[in-house]
Amino acid sequence: MLASLQQAPNGHIARFERHLKHSVENVWAxxxxxxxxxxxxxxxxxxxxxxxxxxxxxxxxxxFEEMEIIELRTNAVLEYTWGEDRVRFELSPESGGTRLIxxxxxxxxxxxxxxxxxxxxxxxxxxxxxxDGRTLALRENEWKIWHEKYVELIxxxxx
Length: 159
What we know:
The chain has one domain: START domain (Alpha-D-Glucose-1,6-Bisphosphate, Chain A, domain 4, 2-Layer Sandwich). It has four helices and eight strands. It has helices at 24-32, 34-40, 113-131, 139-158; strands spanning 4-8, 11-20, 44-46, 54-58, 64-73, 77-82, 85-94, 97-106. Strand 3 and strand 4 form a beta hairpin. The protein is globular, with a radius of gyration of 15 Å. The protein has an eight-stranded antiparallel sheet with strand order 1-2-8-7-6-5-4-3. By secondary structure, the chain is an alpha+beta fold. Helix content is 35%, strand content 37%. Residues 22-131 form the Activator of Hsp90 ATPase homologue 1/2-like C-terminal domain. This is Activator of Hsp90 ATPase 1 family protein. InterPro entries: ASHA1/2-like_C (IPR013538), START-like_dom_sf (IPR023393). Pfam families: AHSA1 (PF08327).
């Protein structure tokens, strides 16, 4: 399902929602344990899992961008900086599994925004697939499909 995009006082808010047939603890592990994180986001790793701690993003050129953890409540909330923006994961138990909400607080829409949104969309699909014990083939093809949809979504909010 496509993320929603809404105007906010300081930019926009993109909101993704997934219903996963797995425990909060298992979903949380995919967000915070480096071995599992590497399965769905190879450039991202946890360096210090605590409020004020950091995630590191491998820029693939020998440098890393540090993203500060703003809020951390085990098995419930993980929020960190994402460049000038913020990314927030909220987990809550529900009948038969976990509701996962991903919110990206976007300060400025750029040409890169639909790429990020398509990336998050595919990442959430990959997490779901991995939790189900499967793999998602041809992630790049999936990304291209969602990228076009997010280009359209953003155009409808900025025109």
